[in-house]
């Protein structure tokens, strides 16, 4: 039997935490292992418990961006799903740069949240449609440090994988599109992240948009 996905909720509003817990507790494959009300407490809790997913509010004491950065530093196996009502472009990009994998607004329904937790635990990037649009708009201008030499490290196959990653496609879908095995896709993804010195698929997608690989 597959063990449940272990989740930490980080939000400074008690009622919000209680609401999220009340729903996720009804899902047999999800288990709430802890709650935090600040960036520092979230990071400490994740370091102690090593949950699969941390649900992090963007606006709380210490900040969600800093919470994400500390969680990723102290518990590398924990994926961060930002859950907030905040839509500021700079905050979105900062959260992704800090290591957040997924980003949902609090107007998402309960089933969408549960599905996002499951997919985030599997390493899939989930973005609320409005957030995805804002993120793409925010990163369309090429970055000053996005030099061609970094992209030159990629093989043609790896560039193709990077383009499909930028579309938010899973390894399975990429494998089907390219006509190759899923294990081969995983190898290409690992190579892309290593060569571009990126942490995860979300950062790779942002990189693809910023450098013009994906337009």
UniProtKB/TrEMBL annotation:
Domain spans labelled HTH luxR-type: 147-212
Keyword presence, Phosphoprotein: yes
Keywords associated with the record: DNA-binding, Phosphoprotein
Signal peptide location: none
Keyword Phosphoprotein among record annotations: yes
Stored InterPro entries: CheY-like_superfamily (IPR011006), NreC/VraR/RcsB-like_REC (IPR058245), Sig_transdc_resp-reg_C-effctor (IPR016032), Sig_transdc_resp-reg_receiver (IPR001789), Tscrpt_reg_LuxR_C (IPR000792), WalR-like (IPR039420)
Any Pfam family matching the protein: GerE
Domain Response regulatory residues, every copy: 6-121
Chain positions found as 4-aspartylphosphate: 57
Record protein name field: Response regulator transcription factor
Organism: Tahibacter amnicola
């Amino acid at each position: 039997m597959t063990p449940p996905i272990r989740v930490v909720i980080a939000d400074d509003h008690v009622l919000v935490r209680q609401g999220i817990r009340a729903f996720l507790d009804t899902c047999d494959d999800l288990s709430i292992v802890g709650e935090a009300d600040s960036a520092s407490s979230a990071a400490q809790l994740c370091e102690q418990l090593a949950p699969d997913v941390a649900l992090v509010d963007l606006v709380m004491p210490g900040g969600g961006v800093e919470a994400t950065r500390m969680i990723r530093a102290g518990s590398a196996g924990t994926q961060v799903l930002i859950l907030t009502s905040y839509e500021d472009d700079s905050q979105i990009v900062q959260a992704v740069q800090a290591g957040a994998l997924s980003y949902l607004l609090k107007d998402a329904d309960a089933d969408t949240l549960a599905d996002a937790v499951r997919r985030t635990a599997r390493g899939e990037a989930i973005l609320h449609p409005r957030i995805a649009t804002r993120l793409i708009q925010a990163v369309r201008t090429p970055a000053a440090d996005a030099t061609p030499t970094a992209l030159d490290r990629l093989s043609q196959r790896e560039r193709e994988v990077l383009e499909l990653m930028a579309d938010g496609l899973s390894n399975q879908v990429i494998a089907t599109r390219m006509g190759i095995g899923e294990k081969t896709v995983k190898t290409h993804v690992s190579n892309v992240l290593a060569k571009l010195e990126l942490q995860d698929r979300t950062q790779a997608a942002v990189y693809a948009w910023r450098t013009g690989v994906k337009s």
